[in-house]
Amino acid sequence: MRRTLLPFLAALALMVALPTPLFAEESPAEPWYNRLLVGMEVGPTGAQFGSDPSDVKYAEKFSGTDIVAAQLATGSQYIVIWGKDGEYAYYDSKVAPKCPGLGDRDVIRETVEAAKPHNLPVIVYCVVQAGGYPLRQHPEFKMRDVEGKPIERVCLNSGFMGHLKDLVDEMLAYGIQGFHIDMLDQGFGPPYGCWCDNCRARFEKDYGKPMPTSVSWDEAWDRMLEFRYNSCERFEREILAHIKERQPDCSVDFNYHGNPPFSFEIGQRPVQHAHIGDFVTGECGAWGFGALSPSFEALFVRGTDPAAPFQVVMQRGVRMYHDQTTRPLEDMRWEMFSLLMHGAQVTIVDKTPFDGSLDRVAYERYGALFREALAKQEHFGRQHRPLADVGLFFSHRTRDWYARETPRKYFDPVYGAHETVVLGHLPAEFVFDERLTLERLRRHRVVYAPGAAILEPETVALLEDYVRGGGRLLVTGDTGTHDRMGAPQAESALANLIGAKLVRRLDTDDNHVSFPADGGDLDALAAGIPRDWPFLARGAAGIYEPTTARPFGTLHRPFRSVLQQQGKEGLWLPQSPVEAVGPAVLVNDFGKGRVVCIAAAPDTAIGGEFGMPEDRMLIENALRLLDPDPPVRVDAPRFVESAVTAGPEPDTLRVHLVAHVTPPQNTHKDRPLTIPAFIEDKPIYRVSVKVAGGVKEIEAITPTTTVTPAPEGFTAQVEDIHEVFVIRTK
Ligand SMILES: [Zn+2]
Question: Which terminus of the chain is less hemmed in, N or C, by CB atoms within 10 Å?
């Protein structure tokens, strides 16, 4: 193994010009997750769908010594090493079967011994939910469906916890610095669980009632969801306490599934499960969730606790983790800098070839990525305070009780909202209905609630306080129109804030809006949009009658053909608009603040299949009407994403840009399931930045960038995937 690997590692090491010491020589005051920027997780490929013990070629060359050498050569600042999956332990375990291909070798021992002289933190990956040997040896660990039939997943209230404690005790004995514990989900869809005897007994103890006998979406199912969430939290807290009791400085983080596209079935809430442990780890994947997923993931996870550290993982594969493909460097640069500029610590997951060796070209690219990240490290990290003008409001209650088993019903407006703020260069971050406070809302100059159908009374009261005190609020589509169990209600929960009565919700979703040629003092709401031209905003809509609000524009319902009225023609393809049924937008001054309600759902349209730029423009216009004078305004092409941070130096702002320019591509055979094309080129584009109060000094860190001073700011021409401007303000 080492014979084949070392020459290329040596070559890589020569290429690494270290700008600063990678690993603190002295004992660092801060734990590793607070001070390090980039690292890797390395695990083998080949046992994720089971493994025959006679397959001794599998992971034969999976070597902790070589993996640590590769970390040092690339500049990776920590290693998350594969310790245990569903089939095997990768160390000398007495309680789990050891991977046969390793022979006498022990990967955790090799890793710890090789890492120690370099102070490279070693974190061990340990899986919970992967089927495999625990369920074969202990069928009593299996979840049960409502009829008592086994589900091939671990019940989090089963005796598996005892086995997990035995495993972590074994691994702690090696002197490791942390655990990354993965897969705490309770399934990715039906059949749901768990109705095992343990769960039934615990449920009766907690609620004094038996479990529901079906997925009933009523009070009994509400208790069941609560029970599932609490089962997950209890499990996490128990193993966390066990580890901390034995080794208080051992870090513990759990892989997070409280984020879209995951919904209630997983058993995690966005906030409740985000920060059990020392920090939270989220995953992005352009392959699975689209090219906006790195940004979405970072802003979502960061919003769960803006004061806490968070990590996001990315990987090299074209389609997914284990596929052994490697994306081009520029594509991975875009992803890594998207995550870094939004404040994440970035871990690159590398899944090795079958025999456990390391892919030479992939490591050359990791080296280039880490080298650049570390050369730019003064511009990243937790000491930089992100500006988040817009708070994207996410309601887990809407996810659970409005969308229920069709999560896109809620995620479409959320995805559309995120796309709008990214393409419009409006700095944003998610804010949640869980554990919401007035102080948390006040972090944002505008709060935008896309399609948050369920707003509970305490949430509405906080939003009223926020706006009354000068906050600005944008709501769209079904926001506030459903009760806490997901049933439509006659009146909007936001009637006071919107300044209008809900007459009725439309039963159509191919609704249109139009704006007059002269919009008076609200004309800016329709900037850039053709006038007297109804355009599709596919999604929920309601007819509102203003009480104190000023109406603007027109909402139109769609035609229905005779065949459609007879139920003989589907409703998938949107119809053209017909009569006007109400105002398109309502603008209401409330206390010292202001509320804009868009009676249609242009964000749902953007997240769906028929969105148009006009949908996005309407939302962006509304956000700019609410906040006309942001502290920093970035104008750049829509393929560029920006982030603005303040500090840590006094009177200093940073504007980060990442460009996502991809060439045309063919569609996938199962269209429209298309993965994004790869970024292979460095684009050239212009950007304009304005800073309230003006700028004193501007520095672009890339030599090819040209900067020209302009009133209140500057313009620049950039020729790279990532650029950062360091701005000293007046
Ligand atoms: Zn159970």
Answer: C
Distance CA 157, CA 168 (A): 18
pLDDT digits (tens, 9 = 90+) for 486-525: 999 999 999 999 999 999 999 999 999 999 999 999 999 9
C-alpha 135 to ligand 1 mean position (Å): 13
10 Å CB burial of residue 628 (0-12, 13-18, 19+) is exposed
CA–CA gap between residue 682 and residue 670 (Å, rounded): 30
Three-state SS string over 461-515 comes to HHHHHHHHCCCEEEEECCCCCECCCCCECCCCCCHHHHCEEEEEECCCCCCEEEC
Measured in angstroms, how far is the CA atom of residue 254 from the centroid of ligand 1? 20
Question: How far apart are the CA of 475 and the centre of ligand 1, in A?
Answer: 40
3-state secondary structure of 95: coil
Angle at 524 between CA 518 and CA 525, to 5 degrees: 95
| CA distance linking residue 355 with residue 120, whole number of Å | 25
Q: From ligand 1's centre to the CA of 205, what distance in Å?
A: 14
Structure tokens at 553: 């524009």
Confidence of residue 290 (pLDDT cuts 50, 70, 90): confident
Q: Pick the closest to residue 24 from 114, 115, 118, 116 (CA basis).
A: 118
SS3 content of the chain, % helix, strand, coil (to 5): 30, 25, 45
Q: Judge contact between 494 and 475, C-beta under 8 A.
A: yes
pLDDT, average across residues 17-33: 57
For residues 641-664, give the mean pLDDT.
96
Q: Top-level CATH class of 2-12+36-380?
A: alpha beta
Q: DSSP code of 663?
A: -
Between the CA of 378 and the centroid of ligand 1 the distance, in Å, is 48
**Range list for CATH 3.20.20.80 in the chain:** 2-12+36-380
What number of CA atoms fall less than 13 Å from residue 443's CA on the CB side? 23
CB 142 within 8 Å of CB 180 = no
Q: What is the whole-number distance in angstroms between the Cα of residue 206 and the centre of ligand 1?
A: 14
Q: How far is the CA of 224 from the centre of ligand 1 (A)?
A: 12
Alpha carbon of 237 to ligand 1 centroid (Å): 17
The CATH 2.60.40 domain(s) of the chain lie at 632-729
CATH 2.60.40 at 632-729, yes or no:
yes
Amino acid at site 568: K
Does position 25 have pLDDT exceeding 60, yes or no?
no
Q: How far does the centroid of ligand 1 lie from the alpha carbon of residue 321, in Å?
A: 30
pLDDT at 3: 33
Give the Å distance between the CA of 170 and the centre of ligand 1: 26
Q: How far is the CA of 522 from the centre of ligand 1 (A)?
A: 56
Q: How far is the CA of 343 from the centre of ligand 1 (A)?
A: 37
Confidence of residue 9 (pLDDT cuts 50, 70, 90): very low
- How many A from CA of 474 to the centre of ligand 1? 42
d(CA 201, ligand 1 centre) in Å: 9
CA of 219 to the centre of ligand 1 (A): 20
CA of 222 to the centre of ligand 1 (A): 17
Q: How far is the CA of 184 from the centre of ligand 1 (A)?
A: 13
**Secondary structure of 138-186 in HEC code, one letter for each residue:** CHHHEEECCCCCEEEEECCCCCHHHHHHHHHHHHHCCCCCEEEEECCCC
Say which CATH topology domain 388-626 has. Answer: Rossmann fold (3.40.50)
**Region(s) of the chain under CATH 3.40.50.880:** 388-626
Strand, coil or helix: 436: coil
- Quote the ligand 1 centre to 242 CA distance (angstroms): 21
pTM above 0.70, yes or no: yes
